[in-house]
Specification:
Largest sheet: none
Helix content: over 70%
Radius of gyration: 23 Å
Oligomer: single chain
Shape: globular
Strand content: under 5%
Structural class: mainly alpha
Length: about 290
Amino acid sequence: MAIKGIIMENTENEIVETQEITSFNRKKFKENAKAQLKDRKKIPVLALLFSFLITSLIYIPYYLILASTTTGSAVPTESEITKAYGILFPLMLLIVAITSTLNIANLSLHFKIFKSSAKVTFSDFVSSFSLWLKGISATLVKSMYLYFWSMLASLPVLIISLIITSLLPKETSEQLVFTIAQIAAFVSYIPCFIILIVKNYQYSQMMNIIADNNSVSSKKALDLSSKITKGYKKDLFILDLSFIGWILLAFVTFGIALLWITPYMSLTKINAYDFLKKSYVEKLKSEEAKI
């Protein structure tokens, strides 16, 4: 399937209250999100409440087992630690699988709200569990790429630190060598942190692309996300910063406000994604016209 076809499939928005956006306009994205959620907040809130409850339940055994290996008067033996982590690893995989499934299901529900003015039901959310493999795959692919870039960013600094320590006189104290190694490790975090931010925004539209078009593979979604976010990473970063007030409200309410804030933030970002998608298609058309 051509890139343009993948991007443009399923793009119709039937909600008459929303505005056509011709530039990256945070205010209009938010206005559209509010219009799309008007009188339709109940189901997204219930879906999120269900997700939070399930996520909380699966984390309880994880933290109980983890606590059993790090607390108590007796130091756990090597066999006890091995046994505990033998349980924790598959449990962590289960947590990733369930949270990824819930994330893609919630996002698909929000896309249904975005694309149509019809009422949504809880079954719309449940039916999206069928995308569980897509959600898990996208999460793992994005995580692997971010890990690769973080390692690549820190590698030069670590190599330089090894060279410096190898050139030190043999009589150099171990404390000085250790201090140099610590400084190098700290310095390596800076490019690593910057690269992670940039790449996170570069791959930020993966889940949106998959929720918008279920036939797209995770690798293709990653490639498309890289293309449509080109030149807009700063705008996406500022869009996230604009939600700081809402995040603080969620913190004050011990996370309860997130049940209402999250759908609003998600729909705002879906509107931003729709703009990025259409802008990229216009760019492709413009390039084709020049040929």
